[in-house]
Amino acid sequence: MFPDEDSRPITAPKKKSRTGRRILTFIAALVALVLVAVGGFVVFLNQKVSGNITQEELLPKAAPSATLPDGTTVAIPQAEVGKNYLIIGSDARPGETASRSDVIVLAHVPEDKSAVQLIHFPRDLYVPIPGRSKDKINAAYAYGGAPLLVSTLQNLLGVKIDHVAKTDFEGFRAMTDAVGGVRVYAEEASNEGAFAIREGFNDLNGEQALAFVRERYQLSEGDISRGRRQQAFIKALMLKAISVDVVTNPIRLTRFVDAATDNLVVDKGLSVATMRSEAFALRGVRSGDVVFVTAPFTGFGTAPNGGSIEILDESGIAALGKALRTDTMDEYADVSVIP
Fold this sequence. Notes:
Elements (H helix, E strand, L loop, with lengths): L3 H4 L20 H10 L4 H11 L1 E3 L8 E3 L5 E3 L7 E8 L10 E9 L6 E5 L4 E4 L5 E3 H21 L5 E6 H10 L3 E5 L3 E2 L4 E2 L2 E5 L1 H9 L8 H19 L2 H4 L2 H13 L2 E3 L4 H10 L8 E5 L2 E6 L5 E5 L1 H12 L3 H7 L4
Parallel strand pairs: 1-14, 4-9, 6-15, 7-17
Antiparallel strand pairs: 2-3, 4-5, 5-6, 7-8, 9-14, 10-13, 11-12, 16-17
Helix pairs in contact: 2-3, 2-9, 2-10, 3-9, 5-6, 5-9, 6-7, 11-12
Family: Belongs to the LytR/CpsA/Psr (LCP) family.
InterPro entries: LytR/CpsA/Psr_CW_biosynth, LytR_CpsA_psr
Organism: Knoellia aerolata DSM 18566
């Protein structure tokens, strides 16, 4: 399906974690990318995407400054330092009313459009939440939806989040089936009930992929290990989505675009035209220019309420925020280590 070296996830101690050849963000970029790639098919797909995507108020009211964890304030937004896109994946099962953000990825696109840095925030990362005490970062989404999660990250990093896109795990399943399944590398084996995940490469359909990205209890580092699984899956799906088998097959491509956008919700400022123009601006980006980074933490602990947490690395998060504010993420990614 793919050469092994393209499909295998890259983790520490290598400097850069690499994924697909051209990408803007986690889900929306896939859609924008294929729109650009298929030429004369664009008009039809543009109509389909526009009809599928929902726009909502996902951003908080503009704030002139952010209060960092150490109590200092920084002005936002900073000019000419690239853009930041927050990607939220919810794992609410059918029929559930509770909202959980199990995938939190901040995509940074530098001003010169030369790269994309994807920062994964573990859902149990223990952080300050505006208007509340410290809690797991995904609690911000449960308390106040996307706007509060955006405010939490803006205060944590001291940056402006320009756009938000959210989907759910059912969308992952539909996209996987639409491209005919994916080959994913698993660092650890696990038993998913009706089927087993073996260490190494696994060919997964949509249902199997959904179980793969949800599992954490059987994995050695719980939520952190699950985050690496999600990164491996994202990479595999993107590689398949931009493969010749999909891009040159109108039926498969249409199904994928439909699946990718069916449950996609974006902020009111993120139009299909914006996605497409941003993707076009990134047409020179290749796999070596796209990096996965995990938000820094120092270890595992227990919250006052007894819940398991990842302890925030305050000096590390300060360095990450500074790199984002000064558009020097390339330098940060070169020296950072993914746990």
